[in-house]
């Protein structure tokens, strides 16, 4: 087959796959979220099992499930309470925002500054908030479906080994597929678990910082930061900006900021931005790479492109899952000579399977055969 024909087949196949993922996003996106939630719980259960000397793995799984569900319910409660608190002070926030809009128009010598209501309820504002509301509503409506998927994944887990043996009766093929599956699972579990620990650490430090700086509704903002840190690169930037924006429109300033009305607002917001950005930058650049190691062996450009592509295909779920999904694709592409070049392009160091791991499937087969002999 000629190179042009091969290239054409690749382009057509890619288009068909992307179209399939897009048109089936209502089914596949919740299931993908369920799979990654399942893997996060499994990683948590493994950690509990390793730490505890008297709990069996089954009990560790139950404890992990209860802790994750408790954390999820607590997060929903925090978000609801935070929204209610902002709602109680809505009038004061609106007055502060209107004042900032007028100041901004005055700085550029413009008149006729619009109010917040005029900006929100014009055609552009209504369309923007309708899009956000629809996306959030769809995700909220899928929560119960995701939990049902997770429950059935746990129930089906015990039969996976037997199914794999029946699908691949030949020992060598079965051992290679099992090794590839284990590698993919270990990589995704490690990424998700490490990301959870990192997000929790940043959230705790940010919450303490916001309390010290006197930012209102700090618990709500910290919970929002915890979720945003799951989105690669862009999530960290937004997580640093959100508290500063809320501090900018906060009705009352702490006593330590300057007395000048206009200065106090911007100095306070800049201080909050610098403090929150410090934790995002220091932990993201020094702590996270040490904890994650070679798990996320993706090029920085690939991470941004993956975020954009998966966001277009699956919306908000795709943005959260862009990094682990791309890691999974890289591992799978690396198993075939025909697609290995794609895995090399996706990887950060040109070695998609990690240093010294390119022969892992073959080594596993040889070791298993020697043990069987």
Characterise the protein shown here.
- It contains 16 helices and no strands.
- With 373 residues, it is mainly alpha-helical.
- The two termini are 42 Å apart.
- The chain has a domain at 28-88 and 122-167.
Summed up:
The chain has 373 residues and is mainly α.
The Rg value, from CA coordinates, equals 25 Å
CA distance, first residue to last residue: 42 Å
Unreliable stretches (pLDDT < 50, length at least 5) are: 355-373
Q: Provide a count of the helices.
A: 16
Helical percentage = over 70%
**Main beta-sheet strand count, sense and barrel state:** none
Secondary structure: number of strands: 0
Order of helices and strands: HHHHHHHHHHHHHHHH
Topology:
Blueprint: H1 3-23, H2 25-51, H3 57-88, H4 90-107, H5 116-120, H6 123-141, H7 143-156, H8 160-167, H9 171-213, H10 218-228, H11 234-248, H12 261-292, H13 300-314, H14 316-333, H15 340-346, H16 360-372
């Amino acid at each position: 087959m000629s190179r042009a024909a091969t290239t054409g087949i690749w382009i057509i196949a890619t288009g068909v796959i992307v179209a399939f993922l897009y048109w089936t996003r209502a089914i596949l996106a919740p299931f993908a979220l369920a799979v990654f939630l399942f893997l996060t719980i499994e990683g948590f259960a493994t950690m509990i099992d390793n730490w505890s000397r008297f709990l069996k793995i089954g009990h560790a799984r139950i404890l992990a499930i209860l802790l994750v569900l408790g954390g999820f319910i607590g997060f929903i409660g925090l978000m609801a309470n935070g929204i209610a608190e902002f709602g109680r002070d809505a009038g004061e926030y609106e007055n502060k925002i209107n004042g900032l809009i007028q100041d901004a128009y005055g700085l550029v010598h413009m008149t006729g500054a619009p109010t917040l209501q005029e900006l929100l309820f014009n055609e552009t504002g209504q369309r923007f908030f309708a899009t956000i509301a629809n996306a959030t509503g769809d995700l909220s409506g899928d929560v119960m479906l995701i939990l049902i998927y997770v429950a059935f994944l746990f129930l089906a887990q015990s039969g996976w080994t037997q199914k794999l043996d029946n699908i691949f009766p030949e020992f060598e093929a079965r051992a290679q597929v099992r090794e590839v599956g284990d590698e993919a699972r270990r990589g995704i579990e490690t990424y998700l678990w490490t990301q959870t620990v990192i997000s929790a650490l940043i959230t705790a430090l940010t919450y303490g910082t916001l309390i010290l700086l006197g930012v209102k509704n700090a618990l709500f903002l910290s919970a929002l930061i915890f979720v945003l840190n799951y989105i690669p690169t862009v999530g960290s930037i937004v997580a640093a900006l959100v508290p500063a924006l809320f501090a900018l429109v906060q009705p009352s300033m702490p006593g330590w900021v300057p007395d000048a009305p206009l200065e106090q607002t911007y100095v306070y917001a800049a201080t909050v931005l610098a403090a929150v950005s410090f934790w995002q930058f220091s932990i993201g650049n020094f702590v996270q790479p040490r904890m994650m190691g070679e798990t996320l062996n993706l090029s920085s450009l690939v991470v941004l492109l993956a975020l954009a592509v998966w966001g277009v295909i699956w919306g908000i779920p795709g943005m959260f899952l862009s990094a682990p999904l791309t890691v999974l694709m890289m591992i799978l592409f690396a198993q075939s000579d025909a697609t290995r070049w794609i895995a090399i392009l996706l990887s950060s160091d040109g070695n998609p399977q990690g240093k010294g791991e390119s022969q892992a499937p073959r080594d596993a087969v040889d070791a298993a055969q020697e043990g069987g002999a």
